[in-house]
Design brief:
Blueprint: E1 4-10, H1 14-27, E2 32-34, E3 43-48, H2 53-72, E4 77-82, H3 83-87, H4 89-95, E5 101-103, H5 111-115, E6 124-126, E7 147-151, E8 153-154, H6 165-169, E9 173-174, H7 177-189, E10 194-198, E11 206-207, E12 210-211, H8 212-220, E13 227-231, H9 240-248, E14 255-257, H10 265-271, H11 277-290, E15 295-302, H12 309-322, E16 326-331, H13 349-372, E17 378-386, E18 393-397, E19 403-407, E20 416-424, E21 428-433
Parallel strand pairs: 1-2, 1-3, 3-4, 4-5, 5-6, 7-10, 10-13, 14-15, 15-16, 19-21
Antiparallel strand pairs: 8-9, 11-12, 17-18, 17-20, 18-19, 20-21
The structure holds iron/sulfur cluster (SF4).
């Protein structure tokens, strides 16, 4: 079999990165090898995201650049996969008529067959959502490293009014517990030390009577796996059993990304998030009581349609009270096809920008304060490799999922070692190894 090369650029969230590994895993048995160089590729794919408008604009600009490979080397195929392909399936071919392939997130399985189709004069479009597709039988082509991403469920049933995900990724469905555990055992045998379970609402995972707590408990039994993490859980699905699993499995990271979005009940209701600020606050209390020292991060959207200054202040005050370790903060941007789209925008870009800057400044201060409190403490670091910015230093993650850098001791990626924190910024702990 001739080897052909596939070049993939990935946009958006961790689930998309995991899908890129899946696409490469699907193509490898058909004679394709990944390449980092577009100029050498027979197939060029952009695996895209539809969450934010600017990501889409970037993708269209990038397609305009990549089309030169088709012009220079006839036979090269250029395709778009992922959420943007699903979302804009109709208009995409008008905007980028040179595309050969448009594939939604449930259509990757067809990719090898589509690539060998004789008639490539017409673009090949496959965007049917499939309620049963979990790709459970496909082995993703993972990169080297200590961490493996494992998609445990796909899709979402929540339909938050601002979000396009349920429309482009379809409804919730989970991979079986047995298939996941087999995959994790295989990963441990290959030398991976950390598994990160992925799902749009990962804690809604279900396989018959088994829930996400069962998955955590059973994964913790796999020898060789040192750490277990997951993202993103939905607050409304954060059951007592899951909290108990987090509290009783030392391998489960002492860290949780718990999306809040806003801390005004009026806005949360408009967003149809399925919880109140009070319920969320109680959940944080229960988590902190069950898992002492747990690090928390969150997602915040400012400028949702109808967000008054008082709603924004409530979010600001709540963030100041909860004191997250970190936060992903965004300005609202209307996505066509969602319920909130028809409400339009009620705030100017300037006002949204002002609100965003306020919470970013608040969070930077809090993150730095929390990290400085760890100075003098010793943290267990799972080493990932050389630090990016300092030669001769190593980088890894603490049990609270904080980036830690320290002068190299000669330790290897995958080793866990105690590191004493000597200084800290809002984003990094700087330490020295305790030998
Ligand atoms: S829970 Fe809400 S925000 Fe998250 S993916 Fe589902 S619809 Fe989107």
């Amino acid at each position: 079999m001739d080897t052909r090369k596939v070049y993939i650029e990935t946009y958006g969230c961790q689930m998309n990165l995991a899908d890129t590994e899946l696409i490469v895993g699907l193509l490898k048995p058909h004679g394709y090898e990944p390449t980092q160089v577009a100029a050498q590729a027979d197939v060029i794919l952009l695996n895209t995201c539809a969450i934010r408008e600017h990501a889409e604009e970037r993708v269209l600009r990038r397609l305009g650049e990549l089309v030169r490979h088709k012009t220079r080397r006839p036979g090269v195929l250029l395709g778009l996969t992922g959420c943007m392909a699903q979302h804009h399936r109709e208009s995409l071919l008008d905007k980028a008529p040179f595309l050969d392939l448009v594939l939604g997130p449930d259509a990757y399985r067809h990719l090898p067959a589509l690539l060998v189709q004789e008639d490539k004069d017409e673009p090949l479009v496959s965007v049917r959502l499939d309620r049963d597709e979990t790709y459970a039988d496909i082995t993703p082509a993972r990169g080297e490293g200590v961490r493996a991403w494992v998609t445990v469920m796909r899709g979402c049933d929540k339909f938050c009014t601002f979000c396009i995900v349920p429309y482009v990724r379809g409804r919730e469905r989970s991979v079986s517990l047995a298939a996941l555990l087999a995959q994790v055992r295989e990963l441990a045998a290959q030398g991976y030390k950390e598994v990160v379970y992925l799902g749009q609402t990962v804690n809604a995972y279900r396989d018959g009577d088994h829930d996400f707590a069962d998955l955590l408990w059973r994964t913790a039994e796999v020898e060789g796996i040192e750490r277990i993490r997951f993202t993103s859980p939905h607050p409304a699905d954060m059951s007592e059993r899951i909290i108990a699993a987090m509290a009783t499995c030392p391998k489960v990271a002492s860290y949780l990304h718990l999306p809040l979005q806003a801390a005004s009940n009026r806005v949360l209701e408009q967003m149809e998030r399925g919880y109140t600020v009070e319920q969320y606050a109680t959940l944080v209390e229960r988590l902190r009581a069950a898992v002492p020292g747990i690090a928390l991060s969150t997602d915040i959207i400012v400028g949702f349609p109808g967000e008054e200054e008082s709603d924004f202040r409530a979010t600001y005050d709540f963030m100041a009270e909860i004191r997250y370790d970190s936060a992903f903060m965004f300005k609202y941007s209307a996505r066509e096809g969602t319920k909130a789209y028809k409400w339009g925008e009620t705030l100017s870009e300037e006002e949204k920008g002002r609100r965003l800057q306020e919470i970013i400044a608040l969070q930077e201060r809090i993150s730095a304060e929390i990290n400085r409190q760890t100075i003098g403490q010793t943290v267990e670091v799972l080493i990932e490799g050389p630090a990016k910015r300092q030669e001769g230093w190593l980088a890894g993650k603490s049990g609270q999922f904080k980036t830690v850098v320290f002068p190299s001791t000669g330790a290897q990626p995958g080793e866990v070692m105690p590191v004493r924190v000597v200084s800290a910024t809002a984003h990094t702990l700087v330490g020295e190894a305790r030998l």
